[in-house]
Write a structure and sequence with these properties.
Strand content: 25-35%
Largest sheet: 7 strands, mixed
Mean pLDDT: 89
CATH architecture: 2-Layer Sandwich
CATH class: Alpha Beta
Oligomer: single chain
Distance between the termini: 12 Å
Radius of gyration: 16 Å
Number of helices: 8
Low-confidence stretches: none
Number of domains: 1
Strand order of the largest sheet: 1-2-6-10-9-8-7
CATH superfamily: Bira Bifunctional Protein, Domain 2
Helix content: 25-40%
Number of strands: 10
């Protein structure tokens, strides 16, 4: 895609990712960023505050808590998770008037980066555990088989859209219980990770970044 900037950043903290995404959205220049999470942290959707139960629990455990500019509920980020974000002008044919439902379009590169044997796909989030973003019933999440590997959220301005997400490298049942109050039976039924799927070595930053830029280029050309 002409003018698209690709940033493969290695390791960043969730706070650094939030700041970079917000800065990119303000400029509105087409950009893809992919990075690996370097520290444990909890991020909250833009409408949440620090009195939300996961935030209070995280703070009591010494886990940093940050706000995203995008919507949705809380997400716990573990070291090794893969962050990805896309900024496109509102005029891009990939955004469209139905951008609220653009998870499948903008996240197709993530699907392509994953092994096809896992049957990755974007599908509406199940409404089974409202305090966790992927299980809150909002938007769509990244399924592999019958469990969720990741999710995404958006922030739109008059000029541009930020569509960003995370792929879970691992899920610690004790932290999910301690921060979200999520029973292990819920975690094991609905959430999975690269580690559980045995593909940690296959799913690197370079692979994801290349898949995203290739897909966006192809999709944009096809819609012209």
């Amino acid at each position: 895609m002409a003018g698209m900037r690709l940033e493969l950043k290695g390791s960043l903290t969730p706070m650094e990712v939030v700041r970079r995404d917000e800065s990119a959205l303000q400029t509105g220049d087409p950009r893809i960023m992919v990075a690996r999470c370097s520290e444990l942290a909890l991020t909250l959707g833009v409408s949440q505050d620090l009195t939300a139960e996961p935030a209070r629990r995280a703070q009591s455990l010494g886990v940093p808590v940050y706000h995203r500019a995008s919507g949705g509920a809380a997400v716990l980020h573990e070291p090794g998770d893969l962050f990805w974000s896309i900024v496109l002008p509102r005029s891009s044919p990939l955004v469209g008037r139905d951008y609220v439902h653009a998870y499948g379009r903008l996240g197709e590169g993530v699907v392509r980066a994953l092994p096809s044997r896992l049957a990755p796909r974007w599908h509406p989030s199940p409404e089974v555990f409202p305090s966790h973003c992927f299980l809150s019933g909002r938007g769509e999440v990244l399924f592999c088989g019958d469990r969720i590997l990741g999710g995404a959220s958006q922030h739109v301005t008059p000029a541009a859209i930020l569509h960003h997400g995370v792929i879970l490298a691992s899920v610690d049942p004790r932290k999910m219980e301690g921060i979200f109050g999520m029973p292990e039976r819920v975690r094991s039924q609905y959430l999975t990770s690269l580690e559980e799927l045995g593909i940690t070595g296959e799913m690197g930053i370079e692979r994801l970044g290349s898949a995203l830029i290739r897909w966006l280029s192809e999709a944009t050309l096809a819609k012209r």
